[in-house]
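Field log, afternoon session.

UNIT: design team B
ACTIVITY: writing a sequence onto a fixed backbone
BACKBONE:
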């Protein structure tokens, strides 16, 4: 296993301190409303997010950010960061994205420093741009020479696994059922990653409307375990 594999596994691990465990991406209200209540409905919900929601959008953004960072195109990088910060459909989803993005870059800068990362962070702060998670990961991966073909599927896998973990706790499901869902989602992860490799920002779009609505409803949900 190469250093880039090991680095990515560390960054995308549940132990990496970005607080991913505290977000459900609207899933908590979907469960409250009875939309997601068993293994199969959870699998379909996450598959929809990967195919039509934040999974696909984040992968396309990450690919564009990675390429801009590799080419040293600061203007394109800033444009993509600004676009990424505006794509979430609710206040909680925006905070979910931005809080994890800043925490990710702060940790990488401290433990895996590379030239350009401090300057990028300072530029985002000067520009007043909230640092979305796929932007932070894309920039860090480019700085560390991590291949995009490796980055995209592992990022999407980690994203899906975090939602599976939230579902296991909410429904609740057994850990084995959680792993069955994770296994069943692997073809979707690979397909979305492959699509993002050949896409550009003009291909951005989302149609996971139920996710956005559930995320909005979560903001006023009476009892909550998660921050989104």
């Amino acid at each position: 296993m190469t250093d880039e594999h090991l680095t990515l596994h560390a960054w995308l691990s549940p132990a990496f301190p970005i607080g991913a465990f505290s977000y459900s991406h609207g899933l908590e209200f979907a469960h409250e409303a009875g939309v997601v209540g068993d293994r199969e409905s959870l699998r379909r919900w996450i598959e929809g997010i990967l195919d039509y929601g934040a999974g696909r959008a984040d992968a396309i953004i990450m690919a564009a950010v990675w390429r801009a960072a590799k080419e040293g195109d600061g203007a394109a990088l800033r444009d993509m960061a600004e676009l990424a910060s505006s794509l979430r459909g609710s206040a909680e989803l925006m905070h979910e994205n931005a809080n994890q993005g800043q925490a990710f870059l702060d940790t990488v800068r401290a433990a895996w420093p590379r030239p350009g990362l401090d300057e990028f962070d300072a530029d985002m702060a000067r520009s007043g741009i909230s640092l979305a998670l796929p932007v932070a990961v894309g920039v860090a991966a480019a700085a560390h020479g991590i291949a995009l073909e490796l980055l995209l599927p592992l990022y999407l896998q980690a994203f899906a696994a975090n939602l599976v973990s939230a579902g296991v706790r909410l429904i609740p499901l057994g850990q084995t059922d959680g792993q069955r869902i994770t296994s069943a989602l692997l073809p979707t992860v690979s397909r979305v990653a492959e699509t993002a490799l050949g896409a550009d920002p003009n291909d951005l779009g989302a149609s996971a409307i139920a996710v956005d609505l559930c995320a909005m409803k979560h903001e006023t949900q009476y009892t909550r375990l998660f921050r989104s």
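LOG NOTE: The chain has a mean pLDDT of 95.
NEXT ACTIVITY: expression trials, pending approval
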